[in-house]
Amino acid sequence: MSPLALEIDAITVSPGGAPVLRGLSLHVAAGTRTALVGPSGAGKTTLLRAVAGLAPLDDGDVRLGERSLRNVPPHRRGVAVVFQEPRLLAHLSVEENVALPLRAAGFGGSERRSRARERLDEVGLGGFAARRSQGLSGGEQQRVALARALCADPDLLLLDEPLAALDPNRREDLRRLIVRLQRERGLTTLVVTHDRAEAAELGERVALVLEGRIVQHGPPKELFERPVSAAVARFFGVANLLRGEVRDGLLEVRGTAVAVPGPDGDATLAIRPEHARVDDDAALRAVVRESVYAGTHVKLVVDCHDLRLELHVPPAGAPAAGREIGVDLPRERLWRLPEDDEIAVSAAAAAPSRGAGRPSA
Amino acid sequence: MEARGAARLRAERRRALLAAAPALGVLTLLFGGALAGAARTSLVPLGGEPTLDAWRALYGDPAFADSVRFTLQVTLLSTLLSCALAMLVALVMRRRSVVVRALLSMPVPVPHLLVAVAAVLWLAPGGLADRALGGLPLTLVRDDLGLGVVLVYVYKETPFLVLLLLAAMGEALAAREEAAAVHGASQWQRLRWVVWPAVRTPLVVGGIVVAAFVLGAFEVPLTIGPSYPPTLSEFALQATQGDLLAGEGVAAATLLLTAVASTLLAILAVRLAKDAAGG
Amino acid sequence: MVETRVQRVLGGLLATAFALPLLVLVVRAFADRWRAPALLPQDWGMRGIELAFSGQAAEAFWTSLLVAVVTTAVALVLGWPAARVLGERRLKRPAIAFLLLAMPLLVPPYATGAGLTEWFLRLGLVDTVSGIVLAHLVGVLPYVVVVLLSAFGPEVTALEEMGRASGLAPLQRWRWVTLPAVAPTLAAAAFLGFLVSWSQYGSSLAVGGGRPMLPVVMLPFVRSDPQVAAALALLFLAPAIAALALTARAARSPL
Fold first, then answer.
1. Range of the structural domain that residue C26 is part of
2. pLDDT digit string (tens) for B124-136?
3. Is residue A236 helix, strand or coil?
4. What percent of chain C has pLDDT over 70?
């Protein structure tokens, strides 16, 4: 069975009466894995539910391959879902839980048993078939849910925050499992997560949902390093935004000229905290306000007059609070935001931008 | 587009109402019918003209007045005693002791009539308690104060109230008590400021429920209560056994009064419970 | 569970208070002769049992059983959708529904029975099983709905969604997901409903006409022949004992 592409075509969904998704469109290429990311309330779970058929569409269409799913009930869509909670049936054994989709499809007992056991082996729960679902840990229960979804042999796999309830060590294992299983089957997959790092690790492409619309959709690197708007930048941890008029390839930042890419004119530039460096020879000076050890790096919050910048530096030799340092913003690491909505300059800008309207990439 | 979502919600609400309609509709029909029927019987004697005779008869009947007094007396006594006892037991038990909690659920499936029968065997003159103790200090069976009746209702309703109170005294309450204790509140202060506000409403609602229920006391006083004065339901029964024509009307009027009183109490209880839950 | 001494004493008292009267019933039922002031019967025998089961008692037992089963079944069928809607909080103004459910529970059954008789006389429903069932329904239906609604809620809805997403058709979902999930509460609702109908006195007396019902048949014997009354009381108690045994077993077995 060849993989099918998912086409979400300008859907409007209003689960509680008011629209949560407004004319949202998204294309997931056949056999690929896309991560859907965004803040809570943005509509990610609503989108998943709409595709699964658990939330009705007010407008628009969802197509799997050539087939429209608009009036198809959830149990006939060929779409399998791994929910945020495992949602296992307490009165059934692990194996019976996994075999549920097969039972629905009318498979006989022995066929169900053998297939369920195969899936359990695949997810690394080989000997668990006869166990009761309650005694399992959270991670084990999620893997049972995953095995169950695979048993349905779906055309599309949807996962809603599959790693959210797990502790960090377990998360890594499950993430690798999901990626491996998806690749082996070439299964079209859509994963929802609120964690941007997880989105980058889980998705071949990443789509950012803000206020019911897809704001940017592309390979993870693109969203992290070349966000299309300040809102996207902020979500992916680009805290530093510089605004002003570029003249002769230079931008004036609090009295210091900084080399920036791109043509002259009004511009907003962004640079990731990891790419800004402490350099005592640099022209741009700032005072360290906060120096916080965060395990893998030290997070510096520095003030350049009234401009607040954030730097992530290696722990060794990181400056302490109160010190005056030089900040180097390498030209090749500066990203020029495309012209559009209003932009807040300070890294600690509180007011959210509109960040809406951009069609999916 | 916004209208689409709102329209769908309205359709969902309609569907929900339709689903609840059979049960609620049948209940309205039967219960409303019963109240209407009682009203009709009290006003229209068998194949006659509408008349207030039955009601006038009640108003002037000293036996009815006695019955009202007796019923209210038994109701008040039963309610207050079972509430007090339940509060005591709940406080002693608190959230612990699964065994005691299981024991308390035991009387729930036992019918009131059965408790009354057992009570008669125990407490009547010549009953087991009389023999075991060589004579009871009080008459509890068929006594003028209806103490036997009160005892039966306290026996049955106290466990119900205790379970109600314990439901309100769960983990959340324990956590709040701990917080109070850590801030220096004594046992008595915790009882007044933390525990009492939490159990106050369930206790009152439970008490109203018990009162509404005992108001209609019928088979229990028939078994263990005095022949005079009768409770309101007993009075109605006696009316039907007397004068055939007028009796039905008097009985219906009495029962209607009882039903209305219980209904008003039921409304009060639901109101209080709703307010406590946040309206 | 740490039990203080007071709690243990309380537990002991409660156990005694609940078990002792039952014991007396058993003893009294089998005591052919038990003159005061003896603490134990002089003569044991089956007189009570025999007398109890001659006459109307046997018919009363089966009629009461039939009425209770039918009433409970009807209440479950009518009450299930209402319980579902209330439990999932899908009603805009649930207070009205709760009021409608609370009122019949607290109004004396004799009153509702007497009120219904006015219409049943015209409809020919007096002295029929159907009439008694309808009269009992007023008390049983609210009980069933109130107990059953606690079974429904976000957990059951989540499992049903999972069922839909796993390919289950509506009937399959009902059989394999919904029913097992609500089974314990459903059993409790059915049982409580049964007991309410089984224990009914007032409404059975008002609407039943001459048709014998167990509690009604039993009551006169308390004054006339306590041994027979005790025997009938044991019979009357049988479903309650069954309930206790079942709940005790359910409480001990793992979920």
1. 1-45
2. 877 777 777 766 7
3. coil
4. 93
Mean pLDDT estimate for chain A = 89
> Which amino acid belongs to residue A66?
E
Lowest mean pLDDT among C37-41, C47-51, C157-161: C37-41
Q: Which two tokens stand for residue A298?
A: 């030290």
How many interface pairs between B and C have CB atoms less than 8 angstroms apart?
256
- Answer yes or no: do A89 and C158 touch at CB < 8 A: no
Q: Are residues C83 and C27 in the same domain?
A: no
Residues C162, C40 share a domain = no
Q: How many CB pairs under 8 A join A and C?
A: 62
For residue C181, the chain A residues in CB contact (below 8 A) are: 89-91
- Select from C90, C159, C164, C166 the residue whose CB has the most chain A CBs within 10 Å, as the one to mutate to test that interface: C166
Residues of chain C with a CB closer than 8 angstroms to some CB in chain A: 158-159, 161-169, 172-173, 176-177, 180-181, 183, 255
Encode pLDDT of C3-41 as tens digits.
577 777 777 887 787 777 778 888 888 877 776 666 677
CA distances A116 to A134, A141, A265, B3, C161, Å, are 18, 15, 63, 45, 21
pLDDT in tens, C179-192: 999 998 998 899 89
Q: Are residues C40 and C60 in the same domain?
A: no
Cα of B3 to nearest chain C Cα, Å: 19
Read off the pTM: 0.85
Tell me if chain C has a CB within 8 Å of the CB of A252.
no
pLDDT tens digits for C120-148? 999 988 889 999 999 999 999 999 999 99
Residue C51 within a domain: no
Sign of CA dihedral A120, A124, A127, A131: negative
C50 domain-assigned: no
Query: Cβ separation of C167 and A53 shorter than 8 Å?
Result: no
Q: Structurally, how many domains does chain C consist of?
A: 2
Probe site for chain B from C23, C40, C118 (most B CB atoms < 10 A): C118
Chains that touch B (3 or more CB pairs under 8 A): A, C
* CATH assignment at residue C71: 1.10.3720.10
**CA-based nearest distance A288→chain C, Å:** 50
> Are residue C138 and residue C16 in the same domain, yes or no?
no
Question: Does C84 lie in the same domain as C8?
Answer: no
Same domain, C32 and C108: no
Inspect the interface and report whether the beta carbons of C117 and B37 lie closer than 8 Å: yes
Instruction: Please say if the pLDDT value at position A360 is more than 80.
Output: no
Three-state DSSP state, B111: coil
The pairing of beta strand A59-64 with beta strand A213-218 = unpaired
Does C200 share its domain with C98?
yes
Neighbours of B244 (CB within 10 A): 10
Q: What is the pLDDT of residues C84-120, one digit of tens each?
A: 999 999 888 888 899 899 889 899 999 999 999 989 9
Q: For A323, left (φ over 0), alpha (ψ -120 to 50), or beta?
A: beta
**Residues C137, C39 share a domain:** no
pLDDT at C253: 55
Q: B8 in contact with A at a CB cutoff of 8 Å?
A: yes
Give the chain A residue whose CA is nearest to the CA of B10: A17
Interchain proximity B4–A18, CB inside 8 Å: no
Query: Residue B104: which residues within 8 A CB-CB, separation 6 or more?
Result: B89, B159, B162, B163, C14
The beta-carbon neighbor of B37 closest among C78, C118, C218 is C118
Residue written as tokens 């399959």? C172
Per-residue pLDDT reduced to its tens digit, A235-284: 998 889 898 899 988 988 888 888 898 888 888 899 999 999 999 888 89
Distance from CA of A56 to the nearest CA of B (A): 9
pLDDT the model gives residue A352: 35
User: Which pairs count as long-range contacts for C244-252, CB under 8 Å and 24+ apart, including other chains?
Assistant: C244/B106, C244/B109, C246/C191, C247/B105, C248/B102, C250/C184, C251/B102
Quick check: A104 and C166 CB within 8 A? yes
ipTM of the complex model: 0.89
